[in-house]
Design goal:
This protein is of the alpha+beta class. It is 41% helix and 17% strand. The protein has helices at residues 45-60, 89-104, 125-141, 144-160; strands at 17-24, 27-33, 68-73, 79-84. A hairpin with a 5-residue loop joins strand 3 (68-73) and strand 4. Helix 2 packs antiparallel against helix 3 (125-141). 30% of the residues are buried. It comes from Candidatus Borkfalkia faecigallinarum.
């Protein structure tokens, strides 16, 4: 059986950041890596669940909403996947930054009531806000060279299709 693209990456070498993953059938997958894999520091289940609700809501209501197809957590609890179409890596990066900033202003976790969520009792607004703030600070500190390299990977994938 062939490995899927995300399993082909060396997770021990991977660092937190916003990584271009794949472009398949016109859909770009971005890896929003909040934590270094296999380093023992993971997003708590309740915070992960809340970040999912908060960022999904902010992205789907943000300026690039028509390009957002899916946002969801990684089972390893080190980050999230964003699937989009018709948007550049750099525009997606800016959309993620804006969505993270919007999360800081949320007073409750969207969609966290019993009728809206299949596990409504497992949410952590404070923990989610803390994770989002830390990730936003990480993104703001990324060197331009790293952003340009990820943007180049996405551009090459677009040319190859």
């Amino acid at each position: 059986m062939d490995k899927i693209p995300s399993f082909e990456k060396d997770h021990d070498a991977m660092q937190p950041g916003l990584h271009f993953s794949t472009l398949q059938k016109g859909v770009m997958t971005l890896d929003l890596r909040f934590k270094k894999p296999n380093a023992g520091d993971y997003v708590s289940p309740a915070a992960l669940h809340s970040v999912e609700h908060m960022l999904a809501t902010a992205l789907r209501n943000g300026p690039q909403r028509e390009h957002v197809l899916y946002f969801g957590p990684m089972g390893c609890r080190t980050g999230f996947y964003l699937l989009s179409e018709g948007i550049s890596y750099r525009a997606a990066f800016e959309a993620v930054r804006a969505a993270l900033a919007a999360c800081a202003d949320m007073d409750e976790v969207p969609g966290s009531h019993r009728s809206e969520c299949g596990n409504y009792q497992e949410h952590d607004l404070a923990g989610a806000k803390s994770e989002c703030a830390a990730y936003l600070a990480l993104l703001d500190a990324l060197p331009e060279e790293e952003l340009a390299a990820e943007e180049e990977k996405a551009r090459r994938a677009e040319e190859e299709k």
